[in-house]
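Justification of resources, computational component.

The compute hours requested in this renewal are based largely on the per-chain cost of generating structure records like the one below. Each record pairs the submitted sequence with a full structure-token output. That output is archived, and it is also reused by downstream analysis tasks.
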Amino acid sequence: MRYYSGFSLCNDRKFFQKYLIESEYCVGGFSYGAIKAFEYVLHTEERIDRLQLFSPAFFQDRDVQFKRLQLLGFRNNADGYISQFTSNCCAPFKCKNITIKKGSYEELRELLEYVWDRNALTRLCDRGTILEVYLGSEDAIIDVAAVKAFFQPFSTVYYINGASHLLQREEGM
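The structure output for this chain reads:
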């Protein structure tokens, strides 16, 4: 399985082990990594039977001011921004067993400005790729209702009650 990590994270795959389909024909990604996984599957000629998106980064419902404030916060204090961001990934729980790497301004901008394309999702489905989206009800990063409404016509959406952006329902792992 090919897997893509979230913004400023590495080794986050462990949080999704119980959901991952370990197959050479499956691709998965978490948050920012969901964008990378989708783009990979969309543009590859390889056989991909299933795409798993865990808490996909979805900010096309947010206004320009929100995005500017995020980028400004990162530019002014990248370490503080990443610390707060990763804390929000775990919320409402405390972070444990999370490995942080320093993400870049360009990656954050890509994450915030990415627009999920309905036509591209339709093409993916028409190719026979099964799309699965996993969402936590307590996600403090994305608007779960907006993400669910957007992806439901194209995928099976799994809604995990009491779960964070990392799909955890308890303190750490």
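The two ends are 22 Å apart (CA to CA). The longest strand covers residues 130-136.
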